[in-house]
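Record 1 of the preview.
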Amino acid sequence: MKRTLIASAIGILLLLAALPLSYQLWPARTPVAAALQPGEQIGGPFELINEQGQAVSEQTFAGRWLLMFFGFTRCADICPTTLVQISKVLDGLGEQGDQVQPLFISLDPERDTPQVLAAYTTFFDDRILGLTGSAAQIRQVADAYAVYFRKVPMGDTYMLDHTGAIYLMNPDGELAGLISLQMTAAQAVQEISRAMADARDG
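->
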């Protein structure tokens, strides 16, 4: 077990060390906006695997606010930037942040094992939980949240194009809002606090 953790830690350090090269090979792109249609139902049942290799579902997080972001650990720009932003948002929420569970759902289950996700999310913030699963499970949850993604071949490897937005889900599992990646942390905190206040008053 200890050897596995050490190997995972070394792997994530090598991955992070390679980010500067990744930035050159994979220039920053405008993230794909969440393509939501008026009245479209977002969310629903899912079954995934957490960083400890345990099965989780939407019921695991029942009663909590969720900040859900879909990406992958080899993402050169959008994902690291967004996870840093989520960490700042949690700090900005103060005690309200205790009601929020941030989830980083991998769209790359072939490479993002639970061990890789554990090392990756911890690098940004211990409060962020990484989730993965089978290809079918990832496709199911992506469809449920109207998340677009596709592989982009790059020589003998690949990257992913994917939706760039943070989904704010209320404790009933309903979409409370989309946090744009263009928002500052302060603006995102205001949006989340407003949604929480509306839920209490409603």
